[in-house]
Amino acid sequence: MTLQELYGNIGENYEQALRVLRVDKLVDKHIRKLTKNGLIESLLAAGESMDPTELFEKAHAAKGNCGNLGLTRLAAAASEIAEEFRPGNPRRMTDAEVKEKLGETAILYEQAAEQIRRYEEANP
Predict the structure, then answer these.
(1) How many domains are there within the chain?
(2) pLDDT at residue 31 in the model
(3) C-alpha distance across the termini of the chain, in Å
């Protein structure tokens, strides 16, 4: 499986990742880190406590990381959560809606992670 096929399998934007990271080698290096860096897992864990500061910080970090990797759907989901908990922003979602958004984020992440694992197996 190639990087382009990986991105196609998860329905994401390889060209965006290449624009940011410039070369395939860096895209490869950083996409492999996504399943190991714990960013999404820490965001989901912050949703358990509903701590506004943690949710903002974790969502903001995930948004940037996923955006740089061209994972636009994950970045958008994280962005919604970050904006919900950005200091000074009024809350617009209920806690239940935030947890639903986190659930959607978890599904998107698992779909991507599964394909990344397959990519890693095909390209050790």
Answers:
(1) 1
(2) 97
(3) 11
Transcribe 2-60 into DSSP letters: -HHHHHHHHT--HHHHHHHH-SHHHHHHHHHHTTTS-HHHHHHHHHHHT-HHHHHHHHH
Mean pLDDT, 10 residues at a time, over the chain (124 residues)? 96 95 96 96 96 97 97 97 96 96 97 98 96
Residue with tokens 């080698």: 25
Domain that holds residue 10: 3-122
Report the pLDDT value the prediction gives residue 84, as an integer from 0 to 100: 97
User: What tokens were used for 94?
Assistant: 């209920």
Determine contact, residues 101/80, Cβ cutoff 8 Å: yes
Structure tokens at 52: 């506004």
- The CATH code of the domain that includes 32 is 1.20.120
The H-or-E segment that residue 123 falls in is none
- Confidence (pTM): 0.92
